[in-house]
Amino acid sequence: MLTSLRKNLLLKIVSLLISLGIWLYVQLSKPQVAQQTVAFDVRFVNLDRSKFIVTSTSSTQVKVLASGTPEELKKLKGKEYSAYIDLLDAEPGLKEYPVRVNYPTEAKVDWERPPTVFVNLEPLAHGVRRVEVVQDDSLAPSGFALGEPTVMPEMVKIEGPQSRIDDVATARALVLGTKAIKPGDQLVAPVELLDKNNKIVPFVTAEPNEVTVRPTLAPIVPRHNLLVTPNWQGQPAFGFRVLSYTITPNQVEVSGDYKRLTTIATLETDPIPLSELSADKTVTVPLRVPSGLSLKGSRNVTVRIKVGAIETPTP
After folding, report:
1. Which helix (H) or strand (E) covers residue 4, if one does?
2. Which residues pair with 247 in a beta bridge?
3. What distance in Å separates the CA atoms of residue 200 and residue 107, rounded to the nearest whole number?
């Protein structure tokens, strides 16, 4: 009896092991399934670019989940996925369009999104703007200053949505450099389209989008500030004297030959007559500017003279 029970238990264990082995074989024989997410851009087809421009979309990408064995997905690597929106019969405004997806036939696609995309179309408009050049002062070599440059072309055509075209206040060419320029140098600068707040206007392009700028160099003229001194002529009336005076302005800026400027520290007025002067007086008188020098601002100054009686000492 005991021997029979042992045989039955052994048979059951062997059967269980055989069943487990068969199950493992079946499971290992099944192909392993893997998944791979692929993202790619949506493109527009049949868009009449001479009439319309896309200014906004609700989505610019499509995602596809492909599934299969690792070997199958490996074969799909490098194959083309694409998504497009057909705008053949599109009209201006914000509308919803279906997204069409192309992918390799070998792939099993479980889902894709989004199925539709909102696209805003605006009519294309054109305009013309004059190019304004902004120069970096560091381009000027030592002893020179940047003058008014020449730019070619002076005008550029602009293209974009009508609402954006109206926002373009300035077509700016920003001239930058890493070293000082030499006379005759030409620089190429990109054209930026800016609004009244100096911000880039989107969706608007310039034609051409670059201009050639030829900076001009002007020698820097030495400048000095000189004090103004009065050139008195004659004496006040008997018993009177000049108590004080003020000159407005009391100093002026003079430019010219450097050697000449180093020899003078003041600038005289034309003669101011004091003869028979017995009361306060205000006069406007020109300055005497030596030859070879130039004066910044007005040539005239105002002199206010205060006159008082000479006090007689008490015996």
Report:
1. helix 2-29
2. 303
3. 44
Report the distance separating Cα 273 and Cα 234, nearest Å. 6
Q: Give the span between the Cα atoms of 157 and 26, in whole angstroms.
A: 72
**Pairing status of strand 150-152 against strand 170-175:** unpaired
For the CA atoms of 267, 269, 270, 276, what is the dihedral angle to 10 degrees? -140
Stretch 61-72: mean pLDDT, rounded? 75
For the segment 216-244, what is each residue's pLDDT rounded down to a tens digit?
887 766 778 889 999 999 888 888 888 99
What is the maximum span of the chain, computed from C-alpha positions, in angstroms? 168
Nearest CA-CA partner of 219 in 178, 265, 255, 176: 255
Model confidence pLDDT, tens digit, residues 232-279? 998 888 888 889 999 999 999 888 776 777 778 888 999 999 888 889
Please tell me the distance from the alpha carbon of residue 26 to that of residue 137, in angstroms, as a whole number.
Answer: 80
**pLDDT, tens digit, for every residue of 120-159?**
888 888 999 999 998 888 788 877 778 888 899 999 999 9
Apex CA 53: angle with CA 50 and CA 55, to 5°?
170
Within 10 A of 33 (CB to CB), how many other CB atoms are there? 12
Nearest CA to 12 among 1, 22, 23, 20? 20
The answer to whether 206 and 173 have CB atoms below 8 angstroms apart is no
Share of the chain above pLDDT 70, in %: 81
